[in-house]
Write a structure and sequence with these properties.
Layout: E1 9-16, H1 20-24, H2 30-37, E2 42-46, E3 53-60, E4 63-75, E5 79-86, E6 96-105, E7 108-116, H3 125-135, H4 139-149
Length: 150
């Protein structure tokens, strides 16, 4: 079964008027997922299989910073979970997790993105969570919905 979503999580969600099988087609290739998930950061690589690795980067304070990790849950039409950690010198002792979950709802799909695992940071968990809570928005999910519903 899917990843356990921890209490310290950022959650963004959207309803898409299409079944999970249609939404999941946008996970079918690097190009397809990059079209919607490569927003706000750059998606350099994503090997869409269990154990495959994703590589991303984002510009912070005028500097390009790389991050990524391996896919630890891959359940077609249901869930993709991957580890996320910054490359040195910004890396954390343990990665956080990003879960994208699809749930059949009415005649469509509830798509949720969770960024979780912040409790791994101990006393800094609340500060890390707050920073990422402010950073995540709906641009990925709005783009996914526009692609699927067109």
């Amino acid at each position: 079964m899917g990843a356990q979503i921890s209490a310290f999580n950022v959650r963004r969600n959207i309803f898409i008027e299409a079944p999970p099988s249609r939404v999941w087609r946008e996970f079918g290739s690097f190009e397809a997922i990059a079209a919607w998930f490569g927003r706000g950061h750059t998606l350099h690589a994503l090997d869409l299989r269990l154990g495959g690795v994703g590589a991303f980067s984002v510009e912070i304070e005028g500097e390009r910073r790389a991050y990524g990790g391996k896919i630890i849950v891959l359940e077609p039409e249901r869930e993709l979970t991957m580890e996320w950690n910054w490359e040195k010198p910004w890396s954390w002792p343990k990665p956080t997790l990003v879960t994208i979950r699809l749930t059949q709802l009415y005649d469509g799909t509830l798509v949720e993105i969770f960024h979780h695992g912040f409790e791994r940071f101990g006393a800094q968990a609340a500060d890390e969570l707050e920073g990422y809570e402010q950073g995540w928005d709906l641009k990925h999910l709005l783009t996914l919905r526009a692609i699927v519903e067109r």
